[in-house]
Amino acid sequence: MTIRPGGAEAYAGELSQAVQDAGEFESIFVSRSGPPFSHAGHEGTRLALADRDPDLYYFQTELDEFDRVFWAMADKRVYTQDWRAFLEAVRPDIIHFQHTLFLGYDIIRETRRTLPDAPIVYTLHEFLPICSHGGQMVRTETYELCEAASPRRCHDCFPQFSVQTFFLRKRFIKSTFDLVDMFIAPSESERDRYVEWGIPSEKIRCENYGRLPVEPLPDPPDAGRRRRIGFFGRITHTKGVDVLLEAMKILESEDADVRLTLWAANLDMQSSSLQQRLSRLLEETAGSVRFAGRYEQSELPGLMSSVDWVVVPSIWWETGPLVIHEAMMHRRPVICSDIGSMVERIQDGVNGLHFRVRDPDSLAETIRRAVDSPGLWDQLRGQITNPHSMQDHLQVITGIYRQLLDSRERLAVL
């Protein structure tokens, strides 16, 4: 895990707190830290208490020590000294990895070596074990969707690394994953892809993210045309913000009277080419688009109340976009790309609308339909159901913990 704000990070923190509050298990939360968000560990260790809370820790690692192909830290003392000492001091009964970004897969190996009898659970938030391109499964040059990884196809995306390197990468990661007792995938489409990649189906449990309850927003007044569109999340090459702005450019040229607000973070951390492209599009759509920047999670209800539709224009598969959950919790219909887990959450014409992925014309047409169809907003909003609750999710997760612990105890007896 990292401490940079995002959907997976927010979910991991909420789940940890829910486990703690339930009282059956004591939860200790470790968050990866490092540049540009640094929290130096105590002398002789990379780990440090967070806010003096004995159940919250930062684990500091350095980006320049991280092998982004094999996902391993160059300095193995990260595992053999720092992580091992922490495990020996805490002696957890079960370990649940939410992420190993900038920690490396060797942390799983060291966990198994140090605590051979402790079950290991691993939540698969995207396709990083399969895909070296940020786990997005899109091609590096064209950003076209990638249906399946292979050493040859990966070499085509990263020609600086040989076919043999990617063959060994897969073998290394899969052998490490053999040490994991149970994987959790937030969507069926993600689970199926990992089974195709080689994880035994019986070791992957499909379990949607759980969300904490929120106070429902009051019914908005009948405003006639529902023309207020919102985007919430981080900006990356694969989030499709440029597709959305291209669609708004089309609508603005038609005097469509649609208004978009972008609540979006991390633009300054993207490539110069993406920054320049988005800056140009923002200038060209200044009459209908407002860039509001990042937001705090506590602000979300108020921001959701200011829009009618939430747009999720991602050009990658997505594995369980939490912004869709948040829109559903606040009864805001979603307009999303027609691929991946997005279509598992949003049914076209039922609780939201689809458009062809990466197609600004299709998105513009869908937005036009959304704002110009009398009664459509009310119809879709009326069919939105609450997303998977954290309480129900917690019962599933702790049930997995109990099952794994019981299995280990039976093996110990034998």
Major sheet: size, sense and barrel closure? 6 strands, parallel
CATH architecture of the largest domain: 3-Layer(aba) Sandwich
N- to C-terminal separation?
A: 36 Å
Write out the CATH superfamily name of the largest domain.
Glycogen Phosphorylase B
Q: Helix and strand succession?
A: HEEEEEHEHEHHEHEEHEHEHEHEHEHHH
At the first level of CATH, the class of the largest domain is Alpha Beta
Rg, rounded, reads 22 Å
Overall number of structural domains: 2
The percent range for helix content is: 25-40%
- Overall geometry comes to globular
The tally of beta strands, per DSSP, is 15
Overall average pLDDT: 92
The third-level CATH topology of the largest domain is: Rossmann fold
- What's the tally of helices? 14
The strands making up the biggest β-sheet line up spatially as 12-11-10-13-14-15
Uncertain spans: none
Q: Bin the strand percentage.
A: 15-25%
Give the structural class: alpha/beta
Q: Can you walk me through this structure?
A:
The protein is built from 14 helices and 15 strands. By secondary structure, the chain is of the alpha/beta class. It has two domains: 7-212 and 390-413, Glycogen Phosphorylase B (Rossmann fold, 3-Layer(aba) Sandwich), CATH 3.40.50.2000; 228-382, Glycogen Phosphorylase B (Rossmann fold). It has a six-stranded parallel beta sheet with strand order 12-11-10-13-14-15, with helices on both faces. It has a four-stranded parallel beta sheet with strand order 6-7-8-9, with helices on both faces. A hairpin with a 2-residue loop joins strand 2 and strand 3 (53-60). Helix 1 (7-22) packs across helix 14 and helix 7 packs across helix 12. The model has no long low-confidence stretch (mean pLDDT 92).
